[in-house]
Amino acid sequence: MESISQLVGDSLARHGIQPSLDHLRLEWSRWFRSESSFSVLLVPAKAGIFALAEEIASPGIDGKRILAVFQVKETGDIGMALGRLFLPGSPLREKLESGKCFARYAVIENAEERATAHKIFHRWMQDSAEAGSYGVDLPGRANADVSAG
After folding, report:
1. pTM, whole model, 2 decimals?
2. H or E element, residue 50
3. Per the domain annotation, does 124 fall within a domain?
4. Cβ neighbours of residue 119 closer than 8 Å, sequence gap 6 or more
5. Does residue 145 form part of some domain?
6. Does residue 133 surpass a pLDDT of 50?
């Protein structure tokens, strides 16, 4: 399966977009299981973007999981934004607490770069949804790194 960075790069090229931000150089966290507010305690209170994904295939013979990214958000405080997802009344709370969701984030302090990165990944998600494929391979460990670059 193709990496996120390759899919995003291809999508941008198809639409003739020359981003001012090099999305391949974002320093993404490792994917981590997002099943309670305790799982986001160590997420920094810094501006950036985060992605949420749901496991759609358990580790197979090759030890890889397949994740489907279902949301990418930009925020002024990643830790707070992820923590709010577990508040009563949050539409995603039940889904996240199912134990099949993962999250990752990239700190991007500059508001313009953050907006650009969000736009890039939002466009990738739209293109992937139209194509019917937006899975990401995840090695067998729950917090294994899936590189964005």
Report:
1. 0.71
2. strand 48-57
3. yes
4. none
5. no
6. yes
